[in-house]
Amino acid sequence: MFEIPKTMKAVVYRGVNDLRVETLPVPRVGANELLVKVAVCGVCPTDIKKIQYGTVAPPRVFGHETAGTIVRVGARVRGFAVGERVGLHHHVPCLDCHACRHRAFAQCAQYKRTGITAGFEPAGGGYAEYVRVLAFCLPGVVKIPRKNSFMDGAMLEPVNTVLKAVKRLNVLKGDYVWVAGQGPIGLFFTRILALRGIRVIASDLFQNRLRLAREYGAAYVLDAAAAGFAESIQRITRRAGLDAAVIATPADVLVKQAFEFTRGAGQILLFAHTKRGQELAVDLARICVDEKDLMGSYSADFTLQHEAARLVFSRRIDAASLVTHQFALNETAAAIALAARPTPESLKIVVAGK
Ligand SMILES: [Zn+2]
Ligand SMILES: [Zn+2]
User: Fold this and answer.
1) What residues does the ion ligand 2 have nearby, CB within 5 Å?
2) What ligand is nearest to the CA atom of residue 298?
3) CATH code of the domain in which 283 resides
4) Which residue range(s) make up the domain with 89?
5) Cα of 39 to ligand 1 centre, how many Å?
6) Residues 321, 233 share a domain
7) What Rg do the C-alpha atoms of the chain give, in angstroms?
């Protein structure tokens, strides 16, 4: 049904800021594995960080927001067929270890292993024509309904990460939550919180993103560079303060502001501070006496996959509408460069097709 070539194009990370289009063998799959022909792979900030700072050793093929078509099914795999369109998750927890029993799936040793590869040390592999899905990642494969696109399928992973973070917040209908940063991730926060009846205050430097935040359900939008920002938050919350603040852009000053703007027992959730070594002075009485929680969330929650899929496939979150730029596989370096330095117009960037 599908002719599978011997070799394929892949974008190989060869060192800091060094991505090369190379010809690699199409991965061979074992009896418990799948081979998927990649249709779309989203560009994610965590990959950009690895490429720009060289936090992992080369060579690797990155790209983990992957959707495509199953082209080969290992002899012992059940429940999947050649030709099915799927969204992939490159991390799947064991559901059995100490971390998993505490629902801290992102800290599970199995979860930390990457189970999808286009060759070399598994690193997602989505910036290639074909990927091999290892056995332990099969429970993370989600079938894309007929009415939905590959683009929708590629959005499951990022939406899942946001859904997981939102579930960590102790917020009630009508609460005020500030979402700082309205890139694709910030917009997903705005949307999911708005769907839950939260009054979202969305901020960003780009007007275009603020307009979208409105469309996504933000009750208030604030230009982050405007004078009187703090006063606006005060006014909106009638001087009671925020119930929570989500920091979806890695600016430390926002964390400081979040401590000021939240009310007692409010939560401050960091979602973009993924670079190690960033430090910040915090008045610890704000945590002890004011009972404010400083927390983080990272990566996806496997158990929320179907909920994330329902949100995306039903278009309650029209995630694919945030895709502003599509690059061919051999232009992956340009896709990553744009994602690393977003323009006022750019939002979600994907690599799709040859
Ligand atoms: Zn990602
Ligand atoms: Zn585990």
Assistant:
1) 93-94, 97, 100, 108
2) 1
3) 3.40.50.720
4) 7-160+300-352
5) 16
6) no
7) 21
Arithmetic mean of pLDDT over the chain: 96
Cα–Cα distance measured from residue 53 to residue 59, given in angstroms and rounded to the nearest whole number: 14
Q: Kindly state whether residues 191 and 238 are assigned to the same domain.
A: yes
* pLDDT higher than 90, residue 1: no
How far is Cα 56 from Cα 42, in angstroms, rounded to an integer? 20
Handedness of CA 104, 166, 349, 226 (dihedral sign): negative
Q: How far is the CA of 21 from the centre of ligand 1 (A)?
A: 21
CA of 306 to the centre of ligand 2 (A): 19
Which ligand has the minimum distance to the alpha carbon of residue 302?
A: 2
What's the total number of domains in the chain? 2
Which ligand has the minimum distance to the alpha carbon of residue 113?
A: 2
Rounded to the nearest angstrom, the distance between the alpha carbon of 16 and the centre of ligand 2 is: 31
User: Which of the ligands is closest to the CA of residue 89?
Assistant: 1
pLDDT in tens, 217-271: 999 999 999 999 999 999 999 999 999 999 999 999 999 999 999 999 999 999 9
User: Residue 102 burial by CB count (10 A; 0-12/13-18/19+): exposed, middle or buried?
Assistant: exposed
How far is the centre of ligand 2, averaged over its atoms, from the C-alpha of 82 (Å)?
30
pTM: 0.94
9-51 pLDDT, tens digit each: 999 999 999 999 999 999 999 999 999 999 999 999 888 889 9
Percent of the chain with pLDDT strictly greater than 90: 93
Ligand 1 centroid to 241 CA: how many Å?
31
∠ Cα 197 202 208 (to 5°): 125
> 137 with 125: CB under 8 angstroms?
no
How far apart are the two ends of the chain, measured CA to CA in Å? 20
The Cα–Cα gap between 338 and 43 comes to: 10
Digit-coded pLDDT (tens) for 291-339: 999 999 999 998 999 999 999 999 999 999 999 999 999 999 999 999 9
pLDDT value of position 320: 92
Between the CA of 198 and the centroid of ligand 1 the distance, in Å, is 25
Token couple for 209: 């993103």
In angstroms, the CA 61 to CA 19 distance is: 9
Joined tokens for residue 298: 């990272």
Beta bridge partners of 41: 66, 351
